[in-house]
Sequence to fold (138 residues):
Amino acid sequence: MKLFSFPLASLEKAIHKRVLSLPSPHKEWFTERWQQKPYKKAFVENKALPLVTLVAKGKSWDDATFTEALQEWDAAFYEAEAEVLRPLIQGDGLLQLMQKNLPAERAQALLAKLEIRRAAPQASAAPDAAPAASTATD
Fold:
């Protein structure tokens, strides 16, 4: 997908503004990672910028092009990441003009994409621990 030429500083400012209003567990989780330069760069390039591209170009693309671009966007989100990105679709802050005239069904498709979750590290460790505990007691 050809990315939209959007100023990264504006996008980072919008993300930072959203982080300030996140609820408690998401705020700490995201802030900790956002301070790490590799995470910040990967988040902006692989998640936020493609989302902005889909919002900006989604108004003028035909259905086939939009669907294809959405399928090409291979991203899974932690819950805190989805909380940060959701306002970019729903029309918050600096990007409000960009969301204007975005068809509702495309906005819903983008919101659904944010629901694709990554496996949480704690969830993957718990199943491994349970069998080990049961074999130790046998």
In short: Residues 121-138 have pLDDT under 50 and may be disordered. DSSP finds eight helices and no strands in the chain. The first helix runs from residue 8 to 20.
